[in-house]
Write a structure and sequence with these properties.
Rossmann fold; about 575 residues; Cobalt-precorrin-4 Transmethylase, domain 1; 12 strands; single chain; four-stranded parallel β-sheet; alpha/beta; binds iron/sulfur cluster
Length: about 575
């Protein structure tokens, strides 16, 4: 069975905003309610519940002085007024696109028009929009109902036609054509959201390429149900699943090609879990290509690739400082990075389960081997460092200790302040960038008996910018899962676009420092050639804008490829005699 995945997936803008607001607020207080379910996804609601976010079915269920979050579907003006009349802190997470439809309905009524709303009359978004139009609204779900409504509206009354943001775009277009044929003066508002439109078009495209579709999303989610509807209209079987446990494995085994798409309220980590589950189900004939693929998976998932890449980066950082890179330095760095990454995965199983479901089975399968390799790697990095001198040994020892205490409870600030180093906002990316800088750019100086020079500073900043933005790339990719498990990354702290901007700024600064250091004679031409790595890192950062579902192995191969490239660039300059 072959699997094809829709390019667009994960939370849409409005859902992401609402969920982020809830998680942020949950950090600051415990008297937090949402009026109705924040999103139609039971798994996310369960995690929110664990964080103390409660669901109030009615306004009266919310205690005084609590904080209430209005969900992305919005509420009626009456409900908003009732909330304001209570001593509550209100966080309005109404999606701006939904708020726009509410305003359009309000305006149409003010201008004396009759609002016809294409939508599901039982859906809370539709109820709220209708309430904004003060009852002068007719809700229709198909052509028959539209005809019936038009016949009751006098021709002297102007019609304003709009849709629930998650409606079927094809049906909407059909209704618009029909309405304009009957009432050419009707005002049409294109209110179906781009996120909905995109996901629906993807399903139509996929439906032509696959034999069946798996649609991932909450059973109560309107936009997910719409995707199921569209698949069936396209004439192919569609199976809606909330989690991997719902996958109809036997039925799916009948199909040669299966497509996977997801609703706008489905978190990206759930899609990854479904894909992993399907991947495990798929029976593939043994072949040499498959053997190579399995081998490469092992290299990536066991962290050998990142360890190898870090050693390559040390080569580039050493050349940048005019220090001859030696194999023992590279072994120390590779061993340290390998051990720390393994430690991270083994001690943070929950995050691995959410963000990298495919790895959980891998770590279980190779647990003994990987743990042995991890211990051997830690010991070898310390032994090699010992032979390089006391300062190198102290640095590696201190960095290994830091890696160990990163997750330990150390201190407490205030009621809910950080207790562990990992609880400090943004700590994961910052600490990782700093740790790489110390062991890759700075360790070689005392180890080689060299002196700290301006080139050391340039190399340190070069390594920091690459390591920091590398970490930002993963943080942006994992932001939805990290938020769920309470991981403190920069992306969780400031959001994805600001994280991208921060990464781009650091890379630009690093590129400038490389040019100036060459002009000032601090570094050789190698600093100009290494700018290619900064550009590569920028492209990787930019790629995170896409909502594509790359496999973890493919994604990491692309990201870690930059580290390998750094040695190639430095090597080229060295061999060509340019430096
Ligand atoms: S689907 Fe569109 S309108 Fe609805 S919450 Fe998401 S972004 Fe907003």
């Amino acid at each position: 069975m072959k699997i094809k995945v829709a390019r667009t997936s994960g939370f849409c803008y409005g859902v992401r905003r609402a969920v982020n607001l809830a998680f942020e607020e949950a950090i600051h207080g415990d008297n937090l309610y949402t009026l109705g379910e924040l999103i139609h996804n039971p798994q996310v609601l369960e995690i929110l519940k664990q964080r103390g976010v409660r669901i109030a079915k009615k306004i009266e269920d919310i205690p005084e002085s609590a904080t209430v979050i209005i969900r992305s579907h919005g509420v009626t003006p009456q409900a908003k007024a009732a909330l304001r009349n209570r001593s509550l802190k209100i966080i309005d997470a109404t999606c701006p696109k939904v708020a726009r439809v509410q305003q359009l309905a309000e305006r149409a009524v003010r201008l004396g028009m009759h609002v016809i709303l294409f939508g599901d009359s039982e859906h809370s978004e539709v109820k709220a929009i209708a309430a904004h139009a003060e009852g002068r609204t007719s809700i229709v779900k198909d052509r028959k109902e539209l005809d019936a409504v038009i016949s009751t509206i006098p021709t002297s009354d102007k019609i304003s036609f709009m849709a629930q943001t998650t409606q079927n775009i094809a049906l909407w277009k059909e209704l618009v054509t029909h309405l304009l044929a009957l009432r050419p003066d009707a005002e049409i508002y294109e209110t179906i959201c781009g996120a909905t439109d995109e996901r629906q078009n993807e399903v139509r495209r996929l439906a032509r390429e696959v034999d069946a579709l798996v649609i991932v999303g909450g059973f109560q989610s309107a936009n997910t149900q719409r995707l199921v509807e569209i698949s069936k209209n396209e004439g192919i079987p569609a199976f809606q699943v909330e989690t991997e446990a719902d996958l109809p494995r036997k039925e799916l085994a009948r199909f040669e090609t299966v497509g996977v798409a997801a609703g706008a309220s489905t978190p990206s980590w759930m899609i990854r879990r479904i894909l992993h589950s399907l991947d495990v189900t798929v029976a593939v004939k043994p072949s040499f290509l498959l053997f190579l693929l399995e081998f490469w998976r092992f290299i990536v998932r066991s962290n050998i690739l990142v360890a190898f890449g870090a050693a390559q980066l040390l080569y580039a950082a050493s050349r940048l400082q005019g220090i001859e890179p030696e194999l023992p330095y590279q072994i120390i760095v590779a061993a340290y990075i390998f051990a720390m990454h393994l430690l991270n995965h083994f001690t943070d199983r929950f995050t691995t389960e959410i963000n990298y479901p495919a790895r959980v089975g891998f770590y279980e399968r190779f647990r003994r081997l990987l743990l042995t390799l991890g211990i051997v790697a830690t010991a070898s990095s310390l032994v090699f460092a010992y032979f390089l001198g006391p300062l190198a040994f102290i640095i590696i020892f201190a960095m290994s200790l830091l890696g160990l205490v990163y997750r330990m409870e150390l201190f407490k600030i205030g009621r809910v302040g950080p207790r562990r180093l990992m609880d400090i906002p943004g700590s994961k990316d910052l600490f990782l960038g700093m740790a790489w800088t110390v062991i890759i750019a700075l360790l070689v100086v005392p180890a080689s008996g060299s002196r700290f020079t301006p080139a050391t500073g340039i190399a340190a900043f070069f390594v920091f910018s690459l390591a920091f933005t590398r970490s930002l790339v993963y943080s942006i990719r994992d932001v939805q899962g990290d938020r769920m498990v309470g991981r403190e990354t920069v992306a969780v702290l400031v959001g994805e676009s600001r994280t991208r901007r921060l990464g781009a700024f650091v890379l630009a600064l690093s590129a400038c420092s490389m040019v100036f250091s060459f002009i000032l004679g601090w570094t050789s031409a190698v600093s100009l050639f290494l700018i290619v790595n900064l550009v590569y890192a920028f492209i990787a950062l930019w790629l995170t804008r896409s909502e594509s579902n790359y496999s973890d192995v493919f994604f990491e191969t692309i990201v870690e490829g930059n580290l390998v490239l750094s040695q190639l660039a430095a090597w080229f300059v060295h061999l060509s005699g340019l430096a």
